[in-house]
Design brief:
Layout lengths: L27 H5 L23 E6 L5 H4 L9 E4 L2 E6 L2 E8 L8 E8 L3 H11 L6 H11 L1 H6 L13 H9 L6 H12 L4 E5 L2 E4 L4 H4 L4 H6 L5 H13 L5 H7 L5 H8 L7 H11 L10 H11 L10 H15 L3 H12 L21 H17 L2
Antiparallel strand pairs: 1-5, 2-3, 3-4, 4-5, 6-7
Helix pairs in contact: 6-13, 10-11, 12-13, 14-15, 15-16
This protein binds a DNA duplex through helix 7, helix 10, helix 13 and helix 14.
Amino acid sequence: MKRQRPKPPLLSSKRPSRPQPSTPPSSIHHLRSLPSSKTKRNLTCQSAQSPPLSWEPLNIQRSELSLPLTFPTGQTFRWKQTGPSQFTGPIKSHLISLKHIDGHDDSSSGVAFFVHRTPDHLQAVSALHDYLNLSLSLADIWRKFSESDARFAQLAPHLAGARVLRQDPVECLFQFLCSSNNNIKRITNMVGVISSLGDYLGSVGGFDFHEFPSLEQLSLVSEEQLRRDGFGYRAKYIVGTVKALQLKPGGGAEWLASLRDLELREVIDALCTLPGVGPKVAACIALFSLDQHHAIPVDTHVWQIASRYLMPELAGARLTPKLCSHVAEAFVSKFGKYAGWAQNVLFIGDLPSQKALLPSDLCSVKETKLASSEYEKQEVAVELVRKLMD
DNA sequence: CGGTAACCTGGGAT
DNA sequence: AATCCCAGGTTAC
């Protein structure tokens, strides 16, 4: 991550001196199969154990996993684009690249992965499958969505492979603590600052990667330091949430992971006890890391989508907490058990950065500034909502 | 209990 | 140039 201005050195940005991997240097053949990167000299890491230092196929079609529709679309800020159709990121203590394999059609094109570094290759492969949520079939889930919603059916062919990840809860929580009232670029910078507190994993394409820091490592950074690093008021959320988690019986990581067994309502309530976590951030954590497939993060985008396609009677109304839960319910009653996965697709379809993928007639046109008469319209909408809620 | 203002920061629009 | 507005919201009043 390149920073705009010089920053004070971070607490543990020094590379921990790890024992060198005991494997022999890679052969020429292996070198040829290394992922493309602008700076080859930075390819420092290797698998400490098992052999496969090469690209291996992931046994799925592109329609089950699109890398550009899954990694840079706001559910994780930890992955970097390291090639034309290649992304690199950390999963636990594994550092992995993924890239698309071109084919003539969907069935012959797919995804390959490259394990740059891992304590155990088999565990790396297993962790990758888990992280990508590959036990769930996108095709199965989407079929029902298209049947029940016209907007989804229109959008889906252009956004094939937009998958919901299954991230580590601690990692997910701290990423979305950074997201409040913020933009993707700055969130990515901030997540980079936090990540650098974790153990160094290696460098690919000029980007340094770290294992996500433990709560103990996170507890070493002060609110003042975070403010100097540009976190603004979110600095106290980070510090406060670390402390709150450390007080949990059995440890915060355990406590967070245990939420996977609860009902969505309980999960949201539990998460909202942490400082800086409100309904929206809680829903993101629930959906992207806690197996709550019907959690609906209602933000400005989803609000727009809902008022445009799902609940047109809301057009012009304001986004209030009360209405947010109504929108979430509307999504669930329309899309069912995996409503969060549908929301994710509609959300991506609304992202300015993804508009290029869509035919212009599918692009949502941003509501231009409200004219004077629009004010009245809003009053009417508010009235309608009031009736709706009785 | 529901509605509002304040909160850090940076980029783009007015 | 100065100011406003917005960006995947939450908190405190």
